[in-house]
């Protein structure tokens, strides 16, 4: 694959687009552009970039507002803000999570650029939580955007974590509407969607498999990540390609002022990051890596027990990942960001006769150029590459076996932002992706040539997106955000097209009460083929084709947001999502070494609906949130479960999260999280029969499964404690982070199976019992974090 | 390798250097299962020049007492091509050597030839009806059997076994390979593999085991030529067995070769070879 394939795809997109597309594009721009030129005259703009005074990093999502009014904006992903105001003198307030609020009096007569640096707060908790709360809450009251969760890496680092390994995705699971796949899992199941229906972006580049260790840890190193935004619904028009969520992860830029080394020593892994200026105040770099080291101990155990004939060696497992980012200020109007990620998991079982290797991972890179045409008009152009692959290799004497699958993307996209006035904020852009798939490439060979078996297929597809949207502040009380995305996918001569309307509105009844509603349609053109009911590294990505039509979802959301005493933000959202053309596998489908994979697919529909409740407190010594979700999530496939609708595994009627953070002193902060969830839906056999088999084989007991997911595991609940203790090293900063996972040692169910009881001497069956397996008891951990 | 279980044991060790493994992470629980009507379960393997034998039973609730379930008063007939149906007598027959129990029997030796079609019909006093059909396939000869020892000291050396046979390109073919070791306790096989020709149509198929056989082992190798429905039945019961206890597995529907119950009605067509590993 080369750059020319993306170029050719872009040409195809621009020049060969069918008439429907052309009409839609024409309609889109006719609809939006006149708005932009109609009312930009009597206003002047105040714009600039907000940065951290300590590191020089751009502050994303910082608030810039006119004091005492509801007029305000947030900085964009480059830390740039643009306020459009009538000429005059204003008190402008600049604020950001964990930074001291800055107020400036500014006399605006012409367009003015004002770049500012904000000082960080020093206290541990306030560092991340105390912001200009009122401004943030006001933003949430005034914007039509809903169904969105944001989280900073620093916030996640305060909360207790399994094995002390901070994971920003697991912290997101504490927000309403977001379910984990099960005990310890970093998988995301958003509003009844499947794990492959999340658009996971790392600095604008797609990440296909965002987890390590079969889903127990995410690929996002908390030292390298600045923060995440997760959209559960109300998707802005610039996002497309997945049905259920957008997870937008941003890496830190690195310190533009001085060199820093940060790291952590944990129970199972260590991290190290180096960052600093390439050219002071102009450019910076960040390099970050981590590795687990449990394999060191398991190898020692294997070595020590080598002579024990009853000992089964423990397989080797480890993962590592690296992140790197460089940021350059090319001039007053141009910035360049180059980001990369490389991660691998290794699972190995080796003895002198047998050599089994299984490795998988992502390779992601992006280059983003930001150009400012004027204070009101920006463009972000990103060229990115994403790859996910797995390889299983096995060697026995002269015989070798390998199974690989991979997906590789090249994407070029441009996103334009045009702030025509304080009433209209236009966004438009396009994206072109070239996908290359290698599906189930199997090779079995022998050195003597007696065995030579191969299977597997290669596919390609081109995915397009073209969009435009407008945030229209109709009046101080009423705001409308509307847009349209035209998406498409080309494969095997078949061109799929999707029109994706997006609309959101908010009406502010009072200063403290807002009603919001939105509708979004999404299309998904690449599909994860899984026969596990969970997300495993061996799952295969498969393109839309004449036999596999794109998935589609329609989601409606309506909600209320209420601010109470400037301290508490209550919100509730009800949603309904209809998913069409869902893909699953037939019972007993063979996905490995199968050249006719499409024959194994079955298609159906999905429904999910529910209501989320959320209350958050961000002021005072005690802060935190409570989230509760009441939800239903089902699938219906004519060829599965006798056509009967069945609940998804992660269908969770009740899901409660309580997060509390307490600032004990300047040096100590304590945190606690409690989660409660209805048990996962699960399939269990109801009957059994004895199968004698042919002469020469022993009899077995065969379980009979009548229905899918018709049982429930016991409810899941867990309490975790965390404590961060700031040390006073001679140089730099350091802390000890203590975590206790599963404080009251609850045996949460991981799965249930039925065991056959037999007499020891005669092997006669004496009965059957159900057994529940749990994974994690109480697990204390301590992590040493440093920075110098 | 069962990745799911290896992964779990590894994870347990991973947690606290093996300390967790000593924690009691499994516990017995009570699960209330719905009562479903029992279904007929049949096993009947026709073998050339052997009497017709059939085992008929019923499925039971999973936690019901483990006792033999005999279906009384069932009428069982097997029809070859267009010949008159043969009735199998309702009688319990125990095969001590192979540890099998049959409930219906006809001592007449069945003659089978490739292309013959046999039909099974079972009706019982509750009005249940179970039917099945099977066509006799030609046998597939074993081309060659080989083995190779690993590089361990001679007294502890182990050998892997390889078995080769020719696939017929004209049809979709399915095989089952069983290897038994003489003088082992129990009746179970050393190897039970189901193989199809999807990627090797018309080619020589080589099946290789891991290093598992000792010097002087006497091995009986049986290569069965299966029809597709029997292959799918065996695969589905194996998948169903594995699904019980695998947190990642989906439930599996048993793909019986018969209609009206669970089970298999087929003709066993196999070639045998005996080797001594030296």
From TrEMBL, chain A:
Q: Where does the protein end up?
A: Cell outer membrane
Q: Which Pfam families does the UniProt record give?
A: CarbopepD_reg_2, Plug, TonB_dep_Rec_b-barrel
Extract the SUPFAM superfamilies matched here. Carboxypeptidase regulatory domain-like (SSF49464), Porins (SSF56935)
- What protein am I looking at? TonB-dependent receptor domain-containing protein
Tell me the ranges covered by the TonB-dependent receptor plug domain, including all copies: 165-242
Family annotation (InterPro entries)? Beta-barrel_TonB, Beta-barrel_TonB_sf, CarboxyPept-like_regulatory, Plug_dom, Plug_dom_sf, TonB-dep_rcpt-like
Q: Does the keyword Cytoplasm apply?
A: no
**Keyword line:** Cell outer membrane, Membrane, Receptor, Signal, TonB box, Transmembrane, Transmembrane beta strand, Transport
Bilayer disposition of the protein: Multi-pass membrane protein
Q: Which family does it belong to?
A: Belongs to the TonB-dependent receptor family.
Q: Primary place of residence?
A: membrane
Any idea where the TonB-dependent receptor-like beta-barrel domain is?
317-743
UniProtKB/TrEMBL annotation, chain B:
Q: Where in the sequence is the signal peptide annotated? A: 1-21
Q: Which InterPro entries does the annotation name? A: DUF4249
The keyword Signal appears for this protein = yes
Sorted alphabetically, the keyword list is: Signal
Protein name in UniProt: DUF4249 domain-containing protein
Record the organism: Rufibacter glacialis
């Amino acid at each position: 694959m080369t750059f020319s394939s993306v170029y050719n795809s872009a040409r195809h997109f621009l020049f060969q687009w069918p008439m429907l597309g052309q009409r839609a594009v024409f309609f889109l721009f006719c609809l939006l552009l006149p708005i932009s030129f109609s009312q930009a005259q009597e206003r002047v703009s105040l714009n600039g970039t907000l940065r951290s005074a300590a590191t020089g990093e751009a502050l994303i999502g910082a608030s810039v507002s006119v004091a005492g009014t509801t007029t305000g904006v947030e900085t964009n992903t480059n830390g740039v803000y643009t306020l459009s105001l009538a000429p005059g003198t204003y008190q402008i307030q600049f604020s950001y999570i964990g930074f001291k609020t800055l107020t400036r009096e500014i006399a605006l007569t012409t367009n003015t650029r004002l770049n500012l640096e904000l000082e960080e707060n020093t206290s541990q908790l306030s560092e991340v939580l105390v912001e200009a709360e009122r401004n943030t809450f006001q933003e949430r009251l005034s914007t039509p955007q809903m169904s969105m969760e944001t989280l900073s890496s620093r916030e996640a680092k305060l909360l207790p974590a399994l094995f002390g390994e901070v994971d920003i995705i697991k912290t997101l699971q504490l927000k309403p509407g977001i379910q984990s796949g099960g005990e310890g899992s970093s998988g995301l199941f958003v509003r009844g969607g499947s794990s492959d229906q999340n658009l996971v972006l790392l600095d604008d580049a797609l990440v296909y498999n965002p987890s390590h260790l079969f889903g127990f840890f995410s690929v996002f190193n908390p030292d390298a990540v600045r923060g995440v935004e997760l959209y559960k619904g109300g998707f802005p028009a610039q996002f497309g390609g997945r049905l259920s969520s957008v997870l937008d992860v941003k890496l830190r830029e690195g310190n533009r002022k001085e060199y820093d080394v940060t790291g952590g020593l944990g129970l199972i892994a260590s991290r190290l990051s180096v960052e600093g200026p390439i050219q002071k105040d102009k450019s910076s770099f960040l390099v970050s890596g981590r590795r687990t080291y449990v394999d060191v101990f398991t190898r020692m155990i294997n070595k020590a027990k080598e002579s024990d004939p009853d000992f089964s060696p423990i397989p080797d497992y480890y993962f590592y990942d690296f992140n790197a980012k460089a940021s350059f200020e090319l001039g007053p109007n141009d910035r360049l960001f180059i980001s990369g990620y490389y991660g691998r998991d290794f699972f190995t079982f080796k003895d002198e006769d047998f050599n089994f290797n299984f490795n998988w991972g992502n390779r992601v890179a992006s280059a983003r150029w930001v150009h400012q045409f004027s204070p009101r008009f920006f463009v972000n152009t990103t060229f990115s590459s994403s790859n996910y692959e797995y390889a299983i290799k096995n060697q026995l004497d002269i015989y070798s076996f390998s199974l690989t699958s991979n997906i590789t993307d090249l994407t070029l996209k441009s996103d334009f932002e045009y702030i025509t006035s304080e009433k209209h904020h236009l966004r438009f852009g396009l994206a072109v992706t070239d996908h290359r798939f290698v599906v189930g490439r199997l090779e079995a060979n022998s050195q003597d040539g007696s065995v030579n078996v191969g299977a597997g297929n290669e596919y390609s597809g081109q995915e397009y997106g073209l969009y435009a949207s407008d945030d229209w502040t109709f009046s101080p009380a009423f705001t409308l955000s509307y847009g349209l995305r035209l998406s498409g996918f080309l494969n095997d001569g078949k061109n799929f097209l999707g029109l994706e309307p997006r609309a959101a509105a908010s009406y502010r009844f009072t200063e403290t009460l807002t009603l919001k509603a939105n509708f979004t349609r999404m299309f998904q053109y690449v599909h994860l083929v899984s026969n596990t009911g969970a997300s495993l590294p061996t799952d295969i990505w498969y393109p839309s084709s004449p036999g596999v039509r794109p998935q589609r979802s329609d989601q409606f959301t309506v909600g209320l947001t209420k601010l109470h005493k400037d301290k508490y933000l209550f919100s509730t959202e009800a949603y309904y999502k209809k998913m069409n053309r869902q893909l699953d596998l037939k019972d007993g489908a063979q996905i490995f070494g199968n050249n006719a994979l499409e024959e194994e697919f079955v298609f159906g529909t999905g429904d999910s609906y529910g209501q989320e409740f959320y209350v958050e407190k961000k002021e005072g010594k005690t802060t935190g949130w409570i989230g509760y979700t009441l939800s239903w999530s089902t699938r219906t496939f004519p060829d599965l479960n006798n056509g009967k609708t069945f609940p998804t595994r992660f269908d969770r009627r009740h899901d409660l999260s309580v997060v509390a953070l307490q600032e004990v002193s300047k040096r100590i902060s304590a945190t606690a999280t409690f989660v409660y969830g209805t048990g996962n839906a699960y399939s269990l056999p109801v009957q059994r029969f004895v199968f004698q088999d042919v002469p020469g084989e022993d009899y077995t007991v065969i379980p009979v499964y009548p229905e899918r997911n018709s049982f429930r595991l016991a409810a899941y609940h867990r309490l975790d404690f965390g404590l961060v203790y700031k040390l006073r090293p001679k140089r730099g900063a350091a802390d000890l982070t203590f975590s206790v996972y599963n404080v009251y040692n609850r045996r949460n169910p991981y799965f249930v199976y039925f065991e056959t009881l037999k007499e020891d001497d005669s092997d006669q069956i004496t009965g059957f019992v159900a057994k529940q397996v749990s994974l994690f008891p109480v697990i204390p951990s301590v992590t040493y974090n440093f920075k110098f | 390798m069962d990745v799911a279980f290896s992964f779990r044991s590894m994870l347990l060790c991973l947690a606290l250097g093996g300390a967790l493994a000593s924690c009691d992470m499994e516990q017995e629980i009570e699960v209330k299962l719905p009562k479903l009507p029992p279904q007929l379960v049949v096993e009947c393997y026709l073998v050339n020049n052997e009497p017709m034998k059939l085992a008929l039973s019923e499925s039971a609730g999973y936690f019901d007492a483990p006792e033999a379930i005999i279906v009384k008063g069932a009428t069982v007939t097997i029809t070859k091509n267009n010949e008159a149906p043969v009735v199998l007598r309702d009688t319990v027959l125990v095969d001590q050597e192979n540890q099998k129990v049959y409930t219906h029997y006809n001592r007449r030796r069945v003659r089978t030839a490739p292309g013959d079609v046999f039909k099974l019909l079972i009706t019982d006093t509750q009005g249940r009806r179970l039917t099945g059909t099977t066509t006799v396939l030609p046998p597939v000869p074993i081309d060659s059997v080989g083995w190779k020892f690993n590089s361990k000291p001679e007294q502890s050396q182990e050998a892997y076994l390889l078995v080769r046979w020719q696939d017929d390109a004209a049809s979709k073919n399915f095989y089952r390979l069983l290897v038994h070791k003489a003088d082992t306790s129990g009746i179970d096989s050393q190897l039970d593999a189901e193989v199809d020709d999807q990627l090797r149509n018309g080619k020589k198929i080589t099946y290789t085991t891991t290093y598992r056989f000792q010097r002087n082992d006497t091995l009986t190798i049986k290569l069965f030529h299966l029809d597709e429905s029997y292959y799918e039945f065996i695969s589905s019961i194996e998948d169903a067995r594995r699904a019980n206890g695998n947190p990642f597995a989906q439930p599996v529907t048993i793909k019986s070769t018969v209609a009206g119950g669970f089970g298999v009605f087929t003709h066993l067509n196999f070639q045998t070879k005996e080797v001594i590993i030296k």
